[in-house]
Amino acid sequence: MNRQNSSEEVYFILLGFSQYPRAQTTFFFLLLMSYVITLLGNSLILLLICSYSRLHTPMYFFLGNLSFLDMCYTTSSVPRILVNCLVTSPIISLGQCVAQMAMGLYLGVVECLLLAAMAYDRCVAICDPLRYSIRMGPRLCCLLAGSSWTAAFLLTVVPVLTMPWEFCGRHVINHFSCELLALLKLACSDLHFYKLLMLGTSALTLLAPCAFIVASYGRILVAVLRIRSTEGRAKAFSTCGSHLMVVALFYGTAISMYMMPQDKTIRDRDKIISMSYGVLTPMLNPLIYSLRNKDIKRTFKRLLGKKIDP
After folding, report:
1. Which residues are CB-contacts of 162 (< 8 A; sequence separation ≥ 6)?
2. What residue intervals traverse the membrane (predicted)?
3. What is the maximum alpha-carbon separation in the chain?
4. Which of 37, 45, 91, 252 has the most CB atoms in a 10 Å sphere around its CB?
């Protein structure tokens, strides 16, 4: 196919698992179930946090932001993927593709920054508990959350929308959705500067927050080891365990996808990894936090009208 004229509408075919019909059917039902669980679980956490003043604390303020973010994150791509699973040759226009890619990148970076803000909150709560309510006041919490949403927009959406996209050859994306790496492999325009920019952005939004989280938990570990009572240590670790599980799952898959050397083609392994941080993590977040959090479980029982032991 010759290079596309800029005035022509460009379309792409999304392969997904279309070459494996049986696998695609199984994938459809698993993805649908994951999406429903994600929406129900995160909606429930938001309902609990908004409804009960007991949960109006900095920790649950950030958790509420994370739940809202996860619902937006999955909704930006999963419904379209589900529809594509039912179509023989799913197509998407360049405009829709870039919009989907920009939205996915934006929300993914917001999650990176928000998880770092949550690590800072836990660090202050354990290392400086007497001044926690003063240091983590409403203004700082809103500033950290707002900065995450704003900085992510400037770091992802603006560069993506200014890229001079030109494509030649087969317009076939070997992926479920318009993933950045998959689209870059098809571009024949000079994107060298933008590739370097995106690499720098990946380091800034993945490695830097990850390093900050590791440093924060290093301080937390030192503070916890100074606690003499076993019960106090267990309580401190329980408030951080859920966050650490989410961080390990999200950052582990995202870094392996964006910071490791890339092949010239997208493999099935890359598709599965992208589903891990794009679908699996948002689904597991409410389960991890609710199963390991006593306040969430007590509030849920109160919502159901059950008697709560003192």
Report:
1. none
2. 27-48, 60-78, 98-120, 140-161, 193-215, 236-260, 272-291
3. 72
4. 45
Asked whether residue 103 is domain-assigned, the answer is yes
Q: How many CB atoms lie within 10 A of CB 212?
A: 17
Name the token pair of 149.
């949403």
Whether 250 and 156 have beta carbons less than 8 Å apart is answered as no
- Do the bridges between strand 91-93 and strand 11-14 make them parallel or antiparallel, or are there none, so unpaired? antiparallel
Give the whole-angstrom CA distance, residue 196 versus residue 53: 46
* Residue 63 domain-assigned (yes or no): yes
Residue 297 C-alpha from the chain's centroid: 24
Distance CA 285, CA 296 (A): 13
Tokens standing for 277?
């941080």
Domain boundaries, position 130: 11-303
Q: Report the CATH number at residue 190.
A: 1.20.1070.10
User: Which residues make beta-bridge pairs with 14?
Assistant: 173
**Domain for residue 127, yes or no?**
yes
Burial class (CB in 10 A: 0-12, 13-18, 19+), 69: buried
Q: How many domains does the chain have?
A: 1
**pLDDT in single tens digits along all 310 residues of the chain:** 334 444 467 778 887 766 667 777 888 898 899 999 999 989 988 988 888 888 888 988 998 999 999 999 999 888 888 888 887 778 888 888 888 888 888 998 999 899 999 999 988 988 888 888 889 999 999 999 999 999 999 888 887 777 777 777 677 777 778 887 777 777 776 667 777 777 787 788 888 888 899 899 888 888 888 877 777 677 767 667 777 888 888 888 777 777 665 555 556 666 777 777 778 888 888 777 776 667 777 777 777 766 554 4
